[in-house]
Amino acid sequence: MGPEAKRSELIYEGKAKKLYKTDDPNLLVQEFKDDATAFGATKHGIINQKGVINNRISEIVFKLLESKGVATHFVQRLSPREMLIKKVKVIPLEITIRNIVAGGMAKLLGLEEGLILKEPVLEYHYKEDNLHDPMINEYHIKALGLANTADLKVINSVSFQINNILKSFFDRKHLILVDFKLEFGKHKGKILLGDEVSPDTCRLWDKTTKEKLDKDRFRMDLGGVEDAYHEVLRRLEVGN
Ligand code: UDP
């Protein structure tokens, strides 16, 4: 199925994306919306052109990760807002990797934003909006059957591998990768990175000024949200 492929039935609508069936049962179309939510969807807004920018940024990142041997659900970008992806059975976990303290970790542990961690921290959150994605540990995951030991081992090592790849990639773009969130799914028995990788799901700071160039501008009403997303894409497109 190529760019001419037609999407059919809408099968899922989330906060920032929609998923459609295609004529191939193994493939879906992921459409990026301009909607933005924060604080467990209690705050909602529209970031102009966000869908178009995040589709393109995710394409660049997925291609980079694939080139380094990370298996992802990305097949190809179809249009400004659409990406063709492999259909996965979603593992209901959000994997957060942190290099620098910010957001939820600063709040949870009473730490100052900007503290550089001695080593990256990996957190698991149970993907359940109604509960605001509570943090859980490996025992919860195994006891509840959310993922088995073998899958978790892959998820952990791939997540740290992604952190290494993205930290140096963003560094070359004069951006600091503060933290980010990943989601994984299973396709034909193989664990694939899913969802998106964008300023909605990563905290990115300018290396010199430490200016926030991500969704925190929306969360904290800092203004210049759209410009920040554009700036990240502009930097990523240099040399791509
Ligand atoms: N994140 C995300 N989706 C979520 C929660 C967090 O993409 O539902 C991203 C967020 O943008 C940040 C990282 O995961 O890059 C860590 O977020 P944190 O746990 O600090 O949560 P928040 O500050 O959003 O409450």
Automatic annotation (TrEMBL):
<keyword id="KW-0547">Nucleotide-binding</keyword>
<comment type="similarity">
    <text>Belongs to the SAICAR synthetase family.</text>
</comment>
<keyword id="KW-0658">Purine biosynthesis</keyword>
<protein>
    <recommendedName>
        <fullName>Phosphoribosylaminoimidazole-succinocarboxamide synthase</fullName>
        <ecNumber>6.3.2.6</ecNumber>
    </recommendedName>
</protein>
<dbReference type="InterPro" id="IPR018236">
    <property type="entry name" value="SAICAR_synthetase_CS"/>
</dbReference>
<keyword id="KW-0067">ATP-binding</keyword>
<dbReference type="GO" id="GO:0005524">
    <property type="term" value="F:ATP binding"/>
</dbReference>
<dbReference type="GO" id="GO:0004639">
    <property type="term" value="F:phosphoribosylaminoimidazolesuccinocarboxamide synthase activity"/>
</dbReference>
<feature type="domain" description="SAICAR synthetase/ADE2 N-terminal">
    <location>
        <begin position="10"/>
        <end position="235"/>
    </location>
</feature>
<dbReference type="InterPro" id="IPR028923">
    <property type="entry name" value="SAICAR_synt/ADE2_N"/>
</dbReference>
<comment type="pathway">
    <text>Purine metabolism; IMP biosynthesis via de novo pathway; 5-amino-1-(5-phospho-D-ribosyl)imidazole-4-carboxamide from 5-amino-1-(5-phospho-D-ribosyl)imidazole-4-carboxylate: step 1/2.</text>
</comment>
<dbReference type="GO" id="GO:0009236">
    <property type="term" value="P:cobalamin biosynthetic process"/>
</dbReference>
<dbReference type="Pfam" id="PF01259">
    <property type="entry name" value="SAICAR_synt"/>
</dbReference>
<dbReference type="InterPro" id="IPR001636">
    <property type="entry name" value="SAICAR_synth"/>
</dbReference>
<keyword id="KW-0436">Ligase</keyword>
<dbReference type="InterPro" id="IPR050089">
    <property type="entry name" value="SAICAR_synthetase"/>
</dbReference>
<dbReference type="InterPro" id="IPR033934">
    <property type="entry name" value="SAICAR_synt_PurC"/>
</dbReference>
<dbReference type="GO" id="GO:0006189">
    <property type="term" value="P:'de novo' IMP biosynthetic process"/>
</dbReference>
